[in-house]
# Entry
Amino acid sequence: MKKFFSLLIAIIITSSVFGQTPDQISYQAVIRDATNALIKEQSIGVQISILKGSINGSAVYSETQTPLTNKNGLISLEIGKGINVTGKFNSIDWSSDTFFIKTEIDPVGGTNYKITGTSQLMSVPYALHAKTASNFSGTIKESQISDLKHTIDTNTQLSEAEVDSFVDNNGYLKTEVDGSITNEIQDLSLVGSKLKITKNGTATTIDLSGYLDNTDTQLTESQVDAFTNNNGYLKTEVDGSITNEIQDLSLVGNKLKITKNGTATTIDLSGYLDNTDTQLTETQVDAFVDNNGYLKTEVDGSITNEIQDLSLVGNKLKITKNGTATIIDLSRYLDNTDTQLTESQVDAFTNNNGYLKTEVDGSVTNEIQDLSLVGNKLKITKNGTATTIDLSKYLDNTNTQLTESQVDAFANNNGYLKTEVDGSVTNEIQDLSLVGNKLKITNNESAVTIDLSKFLDNTNTQLTESQVDVFANNNGYLQTEVDGSLTNEIQDLSLVDNNLKITNNSSATTVDLSKYSELPTQSGNSGKVLTTDGTSSSWSAPAKPSLTEVLTKSSDAGTKTITNVSKLGVGTSTVTSGAAVEINSTTGGLLLPRLTTAERDALAKNPGLIIFNKETGKFQGYQGFPESELFINHNTFIGNLTFSGQSFTATETGNFTKLVLNFQAAVTGGTLKIYSGNTVTGTPIHTQSYTVGAGEQEIVLSNAINVVSGQQYTVFVNTTCAYYPFATYAGGTAFTVNLAFPGDLWMKVKFGKSLWVDLH
# Structure
């Protein structure tokens, strides 16, 4: 297995990249384990050796490093910057022989190297080779010149003027010649399966359809329907419930089982209980109470008389339920240092000193000023002559300003770390640890431990449990509820009619409050009136006023209703035969109720009702014609249509008031929409909810819709209704969802004519 490991890593690292920086070689490798899985984001141990002459040659230099792999398993390091083991990297004579890199890996970051790989350096880094050729004597043949390897200055430093000159002499662009800095930016365009590059009129179109995953079965809707029909799949809920197959877990005591299964196995969970706490029976608890002298009864008959509180009256503070309690005078702690003025003193002070009491310029905000800071210039707002304060001299320009190359040089010359040398970016982070009263800093084995116990606030009385028990025993406090109830001592007041008594006391005295009331008992006297004879009061049924009382009580009948009058004569003592009402006057006329259209429509609809419409200036009467109906279909061969709709043509002008449909099942909270025209799209002219039973059901429109004879309208409900699958009605068609559907709904549309008519 170890040989397989070594072979694997050797293959991977042959793609290492070499840099041109003096005295170091840039090196990268992808690290995998024996299963070929990447070793990601993990610190690993690496030993690198430079072998001379052959793959088994002697090591002229070796070093160790502990790099961190990235999320792709890649390590990047500089050979020559690690911890030296043998030899000197800058003393290697690269021209003397061939060289090999041997890499040894410990995947867990130590020095137990398990993965080994060796690869030949196929070309020597120029800068390193050049160092060994810096001193040369002798003659160079012309034929040898082409074989020389030379160093390249990769960090040419040019002044701005030199760069400008270089640009001018070589014809580089210095401005955008077509006015756009974005029109050369291209993108990829994918339309359907066609891919091409944008902003290129002759761009090649790449057809990606051959790369589509078409391995899934492709079915049309009719094929899915046929598959469902032929294989017996359910298309409706056969038992009327979509929830009765839903099961749950039931836990009774320690017994667990699944619901809605009469033969379900019961699982006993008692074996999983946490019984590690001390378990006491009631008998053991009783024995513990008896043996330790706890109170089991209230010795003074009250469980509340030991409860005390604080009482503050004025500035006097004392504790309650203590006849000899000391009274603490808190008046000297009052803050009376502020000037105390009455309202009249404030008014006099304002008047005598010329303070404004109203806003003289009509604005309560135009005196509000702010600060304005533009760049380093500060001034106050709403002041045309405000002084501008220059804050630039207060800027903090004391920080050293360095270029990136200066920072790099500074880091190199002063030995600062540029990589994490111990494989961890967190092990220098420290924290505070507090265990009990002991405080110390973490990540420091020799850290001093600080004892904080002397800083504890121990001024409060500290009692142990046994001391509390002794205190309770010696002072007669109850330690248990002796009668088994925490609430039976709580009392209240009960008032029945005029009888007042306290609750939870069978022998409580009943106090009769009737002598404190000016009213007799009200119970059982609803609707009666209170009368008195001057000595006592009583309730009695109200007397009905006579017609004479109503008509002769001043000029106001007090909004009383007059009924059962056989004839009415105004201005006459006799009513002409055949008339029920007769008005005889030469100075006045009959003034009918004057209503708006909205007020008229709010009246109860009774044929023969007459009003004056003050909006139209017309006398109007209510005719009360019966409604008519349009029956769309009632054929015997009936199917069901889900999400049902039907258009119809109005046969007369009037009010569409009711709709009758044949529902497959009862509906609660359905939605009815009515559209103008032969359509179920767009904005409906009427929407309402409805609740109906199954079968032929009538929906009364919440607001009648005025329809015009000859025009089409469409009704739509979000449920299943009966329909005839063959079109027999020429005035419209059925709809399902938002599509016209062949056939007609079983439907009645009921109309009512405009029942208010002008009388002239």
About this structure: Residues 2-13 form the longest helix (12 residues).
